[in-house]
């Protein structure tokens, strides 16, 4: 077990792991790391259990001190990261010596970074997941975001290094993480048809009021063909709702489980990580896709994740072999 | 049972039942939910009822792919709908009594609400406790019940400006809906009283006090009763 002291919490940093499933009928949403792809790769890089809890930070990361040192991996957004003043690259395992201070600054590209720590963060599962439900106030660290003075613990052992040590092998997250803009996001049709024949020609811009519940989009206002009142019906991360003002809202993992606005589409599951990486002002281009295309994309993403895990595992075995 | 099945993104299927009235539609939803729940197919990750629709979240990550599971789920649903009677589901769902203290310190809108309804406060409270309510669905936040069955004479529009802080357990009326807030937070309902029960507690074996389809009655208690139940850690 190692300690992690929070010297500065960043803009919004919370403990996140996998989704909370099987409880949507009680109004409990999935939650969990918004960029599930980066969360999984971070854990794979450290040989962590697949459901290990990481730290998700938003736009600007926290400053953390590791009294005993730690093995870490940064994935997700491109972030200005320094360990005792030395730059820390993303998408690879890095060993920090005892007493090291890790300063995670601004996300240069992308909105959400993930810090995985060897062994995973030591928090208790609540309703089947370690993830923080910030809206309902449970899970993670007392159901809330990090604050200055917090102490987290991780289940790994301290590494035997005296200086910041970066592993040579690294992971290329493309095409699952693509921080180029406008972001291409694939959409399946929803229950409510739009009034315009070519609604997705123009890109949208992400509004500053976006959060873990949803991305609010600005652009040419849309209208549904039948604007009458609707009975609230189930919604899920990826659902695209259209309020009367014509500005779509794309729901993310912390969204509520039922909603009353027209549902004009669903972002495919494999593009949820892209949604997580959109920051205020970023542009997003929807492209419609059919069910077969969506399933092929999901399948491709799962295969890439499996290949990444395999490659990391092989590299670890090779590194463990006695040298020539 | 007659119902429409639509794709729910690449996550599953959304079943929408006929809506002659919300009450009848919601009874169908809960009858169908119970039929699915009783069989609980392995690909079913979540089953989410709403007023007149029911979402099935399909998880194909296990032994079979998502495409195969989605196709299997669709065929399975069609067979189930063909064989499921358009149920009179009056017998389904538990009966849950929710004690409520209708006191001015908990229900700051009692007077205005009764006046809006053209009733004396005592008469308005009696009619609120006389209601047989049904949990149409939970949503908005964990454990938040959307109840059907409010006496139309007791309806009152929401506040023009929501209160920034409503205490957990607050019982109120918002439009033609009534219910209780599981957690503290902002809220626009007219507040009539408070229950000492916790509607949602993630540490409890059954985290939500109410389940979709339950029948609910509000039972009036006085302040001493409220304090006793709160003290008991209810």
UniProtKB/TrEMBL annotation, chain A:
<dbReference type="GO" id="GO:0005524">
    <property type="term" value="F:ATP binding"/>
</dbReference>
<feature type="domain" description="Carboxyltransferase">
    <location>
        <begin position="25"/>
        <end position="305"/>
    </location>
</feature>
<keyword id="KW-0067">ATP-binding</keyword>
<keyword id="KW-0547">Nucleotide-binding</keyword>
<dbReference type="Pfam" id="PF02626">
    <property type="entry name" value="CT_A_B"/>
</dbReference>
<keyword id="KW-0378">Hydrolase</keyword>
<protein>
    <recommendedName>
        <fullName>Carboxyltransferase domain-containing protein</fullName>
    </recommendedName>
</protein>
<dbReference type="GO" id="GO:0016787">
    <property type="term" value="F:hydrolase activity"/>
</dbReference>
<dbReference type="InterPro" id="IPR052708">
    <property type="entry name" value="PxpC"/>
</dbReference>
<dbReference type="InterPro" id="IPR029000">
    <property type="entry name" value="Cyclophilin-like_dom_sf"/>
</dbReference>
<dbReference type="InterPro" id="IPR003778">
    <property type="entry name" value="CT_A_B"/>
</dbReference>
Automatic annotation (TrEMBL), chain B:
<dbReference type="InterPro" id="IPR003833">
    <property type="entry name" value="CT_C_D"/>
</dbReference>
<keyword id="KW-0547">Nucleotide-binding</keyword>
<dbReference type="Pfam" id="PF02682">
    <property type="entry name" value="CT_C_D"/>
</dbReference>
<dbReference type="GO" id="GO:0016787">
    <property type="term" value="F:hydrolase activity"/>
</dbReference>
<dbReference type="InterPro" id="IPR010016">
    <property type="entry name" value="PxpB"/>
</dbReference>
<keyword id="KW-0067">ATP-binding</keyword>
<protein>
    <recommendedName>
        <fullName>Carboxyltransferase domain-containing protein</fullName>
    </recommendedName>
</protein>
<keyword id="KW-0378">Hydrolase</keyword>
<dbReference type="GO" id="GO:0005524">
    <property type="term" value="F:ATP binding"/>
</dbReference>
<dbReference type="InterPro" id="IPR029000">
    <property type="entry name" value="Cyclophilin-like_dom_sf"/>
</dbReference>
<feature type="domain" description="Carboxyltransferase">
    <location>
        <begin position="3"/>
        <end position="210"/>
    </location>
</feature>
């Amino acid at each position: 077990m190692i300690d992690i002291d929070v010297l500065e919490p960043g803009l919004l940093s919370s403990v996140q792991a996998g989704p909370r499933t099987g409880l949507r009928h009680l109004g409990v949403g999935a939650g969990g790391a918004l960029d599930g792809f980066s969360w999984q790769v971070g854990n794979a890089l450290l040989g962590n259990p697949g459901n290990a809890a990481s730290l998700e930070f938003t736009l600007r990361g926290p400053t953390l001190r590791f009294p005993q040192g730690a093995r870490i991996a940064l994935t997700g957004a491109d972030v200005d990261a320094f360990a005792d003043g030395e730059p820390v690259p993303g998408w690879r395992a890095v060993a920090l010596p005892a007493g090291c201070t890790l300063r995670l600054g601004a996300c240069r590209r992308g909105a959400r970074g993930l810090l995985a720590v060897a062994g995973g963060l030591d928090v208790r599962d609540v309703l089947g997941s370690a993830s923080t439900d910030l809206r309902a106030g449970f899970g993670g660290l007392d159901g809330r975001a990090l604050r200055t003075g917090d102490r987290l613990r991780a289940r790994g052992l301290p590494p035997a290094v005296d200086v910041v040590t970066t592993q040579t092998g690294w992971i290329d997250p493309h095409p699952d993480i693509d921080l180029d803009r406008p972001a291409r996001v694939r959409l399946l049709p929803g229950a409510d048809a739009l009034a315009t024949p070519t609604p997705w020609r123009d890109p949208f811009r992400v509004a500053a009021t976006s959060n873990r519940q949803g991305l609010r989009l600005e652009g040419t206002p849309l209208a549904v063909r039948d604007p009458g009142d609707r009975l609230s019906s189930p919604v899920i991360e990826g659902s695209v709702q259209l309020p009367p003002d014509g500005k779509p809202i794309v729901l993310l993992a912390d969204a509520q489980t039922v909603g009353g606005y027209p549902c004009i589409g669903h972002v495919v599951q494999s593009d949820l990580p892209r949604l997580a990486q959109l920051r205020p002002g970023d542009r997003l281009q929807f492209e419609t896709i059919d069910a077969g295309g969506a399933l092929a994309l999901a399948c491709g993403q799962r295969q890439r994740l499996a290949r990444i895990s395999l490659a990391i595992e092989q590299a670890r075995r090779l590194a463990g072999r006695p040298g020539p | 049972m007659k119902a429409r099945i639509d794709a729910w993104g690449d996550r599953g299927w959304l079943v929408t039942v006929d809506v002659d009235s919300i009450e009848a539609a919601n009874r169908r939803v809960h009858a169908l939910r119970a039929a699915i729940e009783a069989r609980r197919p392995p690909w079913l990750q979540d089953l989410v009822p709403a007023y007149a629709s029911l979402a099935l979240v399909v998880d194909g990550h296990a032994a079979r792919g998502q495409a195969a599971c989605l196709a299997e789920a669709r065929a399975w649903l069609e067979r189930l709908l063909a064989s499921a009677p358009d149920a009179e589901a009056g017998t389904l769902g538990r009966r849950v009594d929710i004690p409520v203290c209708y006191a001015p310190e908990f229900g700051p809108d009692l007077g205005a609400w009764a006046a809006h309804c053209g009733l004396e406060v005592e008469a308005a409270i009696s009619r609120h406790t006389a209601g047989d309510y049904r949990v149409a669905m939970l949503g908005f936040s964990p454990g938040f019940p959307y109840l059907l069955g409010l006496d139309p004479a007791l309806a009152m529009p929401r506040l023009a400006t929501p209160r920034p802080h409503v205490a957990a357990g607050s019982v109120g009326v918002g439009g033609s809906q009534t219910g209780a807030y599981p957690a503290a937070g902002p809220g626009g309902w007219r507040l009539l009283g408070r229950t000492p029960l916790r509607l949602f507690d993630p540490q409890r074996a059954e985290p939500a006090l109410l389940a979709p389809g339950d029948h609910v009655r509000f039972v009036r208690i006085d302040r001493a009763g409220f304090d006793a139940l709160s003290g008991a850690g209810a």
